[in-house]
């Protein structure tokens, strides 16, 4: 018997015969073999189906979890990129506005040839919603003095220098009640008028216009400019537009409400006009 188990050739022949028989059972269509196969596979089918579906669900869960994690990471990257683009966009808009402002400032040099144009930044403002009195970062060391006109790059009148020290100056705008400007109604048949700040209208960012000539037909939207009279403001600076015309004591006694050309709520940079010395 021991010799029988030690005979390798005999074992090889025996295993080959068993494999052939199993293959025959598996591939045979005979009923007896089908029955034998079904006895093995049918009881195992629910279990196989359970493990198959469970495996699919587990795989789907982990793949979904992975996709959500990937989407969150991508979303964070997109948020950072959007913030960067918005910042770049704001900077580009700022540069564009600055270039446009400088371009307009260059035009001032040709329009006011008798004046030196000195740029200044607003560094402080008195209490209130409007720029009726505010401070700029140029002073006597820059050649600034009292009553120098202050305008914007678009040639709108802001006001005049009220006082000056070495490095800064205080500016009073045209809506302040202490401001008085000699003006001209810029229209056919226009005439001289006076534009003055008013304590009540100042809170609305508006001015008071009076001394309207009897023969002048003043109307809403008429443009008002500096007249060049009075010795402070050169002629032709835009002051504002007529917003309303009111009657006082009689039909001939009229006054107007002026809306300034300059947005006196959002000033950041202004230009001071310094008269050039004659050589």
Your description of this structure?
This protein is of the alpha+beta class and about 280 residues long. It has four helices and twelve strands; from the N terminus they run ααααββββββββββββ. It has helices at about 1-5, 10-25, 30-40, 45-110, and strands spanning about 115-125, 135, 150, 155-165, 170-175, 180-185, 190-195, 205-210, 225, 240-245, 255-260, 270-275. The strands form two sheets. The protein has a six-stranded antiparallel β-barrel with strand order 1-2-5-4-3-12. A six-stranded antiparallel beta barrel has the order 6-7-8-11-10-9. The longest helix has about 70 residues, at about 45-110. The chain is rod-shaped and about 135 Å long. The mean pLDDT is about 85.
């Amino acid at each position: 018997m021991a010799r029988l188990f030690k005979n390798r050739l005999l074992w090889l022949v025996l295993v080959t015969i068993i494999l052939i028989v199993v293959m025959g059972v598996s591939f045979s269509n005979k009923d007896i073999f089908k029955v034998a196969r079904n006895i093995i596979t049918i009881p195992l089918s629910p279990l196989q189906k359970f493990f198959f579906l469970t495996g699919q669900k587990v795989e789907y869960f982990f793949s979904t979890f992975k996709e959500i994690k990937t989407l969150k990471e991508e979303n964070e990257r997109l948020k950072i990129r959007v913030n960067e683009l918005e910042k770049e966009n704001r900077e580009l808009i700022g540069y564009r506005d600055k270039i446009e402002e400088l371009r307009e400032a260059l035009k001032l040099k040709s329009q006011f040839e008798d004046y030196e144009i000195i740029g200044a930044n607003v560094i402080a403002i008195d209490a209130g919603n409007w720029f009726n009195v505010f401070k700029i970062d140029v002073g006597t060391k820059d050649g600034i003095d009292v009553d120098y006109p202050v305008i914007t790059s678009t040639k709108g009148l802001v006001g005049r220098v009220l006082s000056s020290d070495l490095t800064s100056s205080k500016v009073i705008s045209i809506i302040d009640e202490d401001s008085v400007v000699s003006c001209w109604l810029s229209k056919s048949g226009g005439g001289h008028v006076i534009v003055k700040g008013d304590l009540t209208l100042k809170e609305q960012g508006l001015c008071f216009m009076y001394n309207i000539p009897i023969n002048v037909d003043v109307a809403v939207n008429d443009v008002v400019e500096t007249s060049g009279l009075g010795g402070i403001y050169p002629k032709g600076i835009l002051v504002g537009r007529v917003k309303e015309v009111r009657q006082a004591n009689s039909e001939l006694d009229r006054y107007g409400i002026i809306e300034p050309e300059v947005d006196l709520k959002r000033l950041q940079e202004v230009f001071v006009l310094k008269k050039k010395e004659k050589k």
